[in-house]
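Incident log entry.

Two folding requests arrived from the same account within the same minute. Monitoring flagged them as a possible duplicate submission, but the sequences differ. Recording both here for audit purposes.

Request one:
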Amino acid sequence: MRIDPKYFNQFMVVLAVTGIITIALASLYYVGKQEQRFLGRLDNSDPADFRFVTLQGDTIAIPSDRNTILLFWATWSERSVEELNDLYSWYADHSGHAEHAAYAAHADHADHAEHIDHADHADHADHAAHAEHVDYIVMAAFVKDAAEFAEAHERPDQPHFHIVDGTGVYQDLRVPGVPTAIIFGPGHEVIHTQVGTGKQPAWREMDRH
């Protein structure tokens, strides 16, 4: 079919717009499928097996008796750093509001983050002596990043806000990207997930429930 030259420009514009829309829809479909597969892998995994390494070199796991916010982030992702900063702000407002039993120096040696390496029990007891009531424990898991960059975001004044290397778990779950947040309840129940940035972060969504 020959196109009248006077309509050629309009035809090319329509063709270009159609191509852009097709690519956008295909991208959305691909991202959606990635997220569905990630959620399926998360559903079929056992969070008790997840392991993270702190900046101090300790291996820790998600506790089974506390609410835990797991945030995958990276210093090279501006959006995820913004999410991390918002999480810390939210956490600072909520960390003293819990009705859970406080950690105490005479508590048993099971760490609130379930230390796998028990060589530092003395350090744990010291942390426990200064810990306050907490609603949530935070695992801010940096991925595909250098520990020295992540150190700048450490919160030494908040013993239950952990900056950890989460690359292994991130790759095992094949998380679609950063930021991604998973909120676990007691017993490792997944109670909320958020891939990317929503209208508001996952932890603020929890305030509404």
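Request two (distinct sequence, not a duplicate):
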Amino acid sequence: MKKLSILLLAFLLISGSAMAQRSKGKKKKRVTKEQMDDSQNNNRREKTKPMDLAVRADNDWAITGELGWNSLAGFGINVTKYVTPNVAVDLGLGLGLQLFKSGLRGRYFFTKKKFAPYAGLGVIYAPLEVEGIELDSDGDGVIDDIVNLNSSLYAQLTLGFEYMSRGGFVFGMNVGYAPLLQDNYDEPAGGFNNSETKVGLDLAYGSGIVFGANMGFAF
């Protein structure tokens, strides 16, 4: 009877010790899992936070230098106002074949990320008018035609992309088409003496492709 009591007491002590250790292990595992979940959630928040912010929401304006053909400013400067992260309005001032030129354009960005493709629609205006331009299309020293150059008004349709860094660096390129909206030179009364004159004028001052590249900073 005494041995049985000792065995029963030993069994109870061993069982109690095992249950206590198992309970401690569960608590440790539970704490560790909770800590890991919190850590993962914090990491997720930190990783997604920069991506959730629209980079163009942090900058209202940008000033960029532009070089292009039938582009908004030609060789000049664009001033951009970011109305929303997806909408921008550009004002261009620069130099072109008719000396001074200016342009106004709206752009829609298809994404709010740093690298954003866009579509643009605008107008370009060159006010210079010159009368009595003598043209030697053949280069033989003989004046072929005399024309009057008028102001030019173009529409501009573009597709392009813009990259804006968190620090405000901006780089973009665009291509498109610029249709002439009004006649910008007067043909001689009897027509052109040299057909190449008209071809050259149309290439220089008529409707044509658009190409532009710009770089600058947003703030």
